[in-house]
Every structure is written in structure tokens, then in C-alpha cells.
Design a protein that fits this description.
Blueprint: H1 2-25, E1 29-35, H2 37-40, E2 57-65, E3 68-69, H3 86-92, H4 101-111, H5 122-135, H6 138-144, E4 153-155, H7 156-167, E5 172-178, E6 181-192, E7 198-199, E8 211-213
Antiparallel strand pairs: 1-2, 1-6, 2-3, 4-8, 5-6, 6-7
Bound molecules: 2-acetamido-2-deoxy-beta-D-glucopyranose (2 copies).
């Protein structure tokens, strides 16, 4: 009898460990993060290798579980799997700080992308980010709403409204504090775990103050 109970308990324990192990790999949506290079390049420890382009570039595509990024699931970046995409990635996903684009992709895959590998192999992951970039033209959307990057004060609420109107889904904005002022650093759009369907981002504690410079 005691042996049976022990056996049962062991099985339950093993199943729990298996379940939790699998569970820790999963994610429920993506953050598609675009950065504004002129802000990225402000107050870098090392100056950017060239003047930053005044257009949005991909920072990353981050698998999220609830409010948190799932990170460092695997370190198996394999450049050969994205060789057919490199020309496009050089344009939409450059490393604006060092110019080492491949190094940036490797970092982003190892830290973030690999956590979606159960559904997105490396080729598909990077292709998905390119597809999102084609869908989310932020400069164009902001321009349609009368917002241009003139380095003047912008209202967080207005910018969010404009993006909501253009894309039909709520973004969230991230800022960087330089001296006493906040500058727009990143705009995040959220996608379902299918990598295709845009959804509302949940308000995040890491966000911009009511006013910032863009
Ligand atoms: C770019 O980054 C990769 C990966 O970290 C590294 O192997 C390579 O040496 C770097 N290239 C340059 C030119 O620094
Ligand atoms: C990656 O996934 C795509 C789509 O499912 C598939 O066509 C392709 O063969 C996969 N590539 C590798 C290297 O497994």
C-alpha cells in the first residue's frame, strides 16, 4: 500500500515537473519593438558608429508571457538559417550603435527569439519580424496624424490616439531620460502568438510620461 502511494506521489511529482518545464517555455503574445535611432544614440557609453537614421528600426520581437518577456531559452543562433533574409534585415533591423548587424540578430535571437522556437524556427522568426515591419510603418502612421519628428514636445496621449486610429490597436510607448527630459525611444505594437494578428498592448509600468520630445 505504502509503496503504491509513494509510486503515485512520484509520478505526480514527475508530471508536475514535466508540465512546469514545458510551461516555462511558452509565451502568449509578442512585443514588436521599434526604436527611434536618434534617441537610442543619445548618451550611449560608446557613441553610435555613424549618425543615426531618422526612421524607425526594429529593436526586437519579444515573446511575452503575461507582462513579462520570456528570455534566454536557448543560445543556438545559426546565421545560415537567415542568409536569404540578410539583405532585408540589414535595412529594417540594423545595429545602429555598433554597425554589427549580425551580432545584434544573434543577441536578439538568443535572448528573445529562441523562446518562441516551439512555433517559429529562426527563418520564420526573422521573416515574421520583416512582415510586421511592412505592416507597421510608424513614421507614415504618425505623419497621417500630423505628428512629425521635429524634436518638440509631444503628448503621450495624442501619439497613442493617432497610432490607435491608424492600426486599430493600442501601442505602448517607451522613453529615455536624458538630463531632465524624456525622449521617445521605442514604440511597441503587440501581436498574438500567431505572429500575424495585432492586438492591444496592455498598459505597462515602463512607459513614457505624459509629455516627451520626439
Ligand atoms: C559581430 O558580432 C559577431 C557575433 O557576436 C562576432 O562574432 C563578430 O566578430 C562581430 N563582428 C565585428 C566586425 O565586430
Ligand atoms: C522553418 O519553418 C518553416 C515554416 O514552418 C518551414 O517551411 C521550414 O522548412 C523550417 N526550416 C527549418 C530549417 O526547419
Amino acid at each position: 500500500m505504502a509503496t503504491k502511494v509513494l509510486l503515485l506521489a512520484t509520478i505526480v511529482l514527475l508530471l508536475t515537473i514535466l508540465f512546469l518545464g514545458a510551461e516555462s517555455q511558452t509565451f502568449d503574445h509578442f512585443f514588436f519593438v521599434q526604436q527611434w535611432p536618434p534617441t537610442t544614440c543619445q548618451q550611449q557609453q560608446k557613441p553610435c558608429f555613424q549618425p543615426p537614421p531618422a526612421t524607425f528600426k526594429i529593436h526586437g520581437l519579444w515573446p511575452q508571457k503575461g507582462p513579462n518577456s520570456v528570455v534566454y531559452c536557448n543560445k543556438n543562433f545559426d546565421r545560415t538559417q537567415i542568409s536569404s533574409l540578410e539583405n532585408q534585415l540589414d535595412v529594417v533591423w540594423p545595429d545602429v550603435v555598433t554597425g554589427n548587424n549580425t551580432g545584434f540578430w544573434e543577441h536578439e535571437w538568443n535572448k528573445h527569439g529562441s523562446c518562441s522556437e516551439s512555433q517559429f524556427n529562426q527563418t520564420l522568426y526573422f521573416q515574421t519580424a520583416i512582415n510586421m515591419m511592412n505592416k507597421v510603418n510608424l513614421l507614415k502612421a504618425l505623419g497621417k496624424g500630423g505628428i512629425t519628428s521635429d524634436e518638440r514636445t509631444k503628448s503621450s496621449q495624442t501619439m497613442q490616439k493617432v497610432l490607435l486610429a491608424q492600426f486599430g490597436n493600442q501601442p505602448f510607448l517607451r522613453c529615455k531620460k536624458v538630463g531632465q527630459q524624456f525622449w521617445l525611444l521605442e514604440i511597441v505594437m503587440c501581436f498574438k502568438d500567431d505572429g500575424v494578428t495585432m492586438i492591444n498592448c496592455q498598459p505597462s509600468k515602463v512607459s513614457c510620461p505624459p509629455n516627451f520630445i520626439f
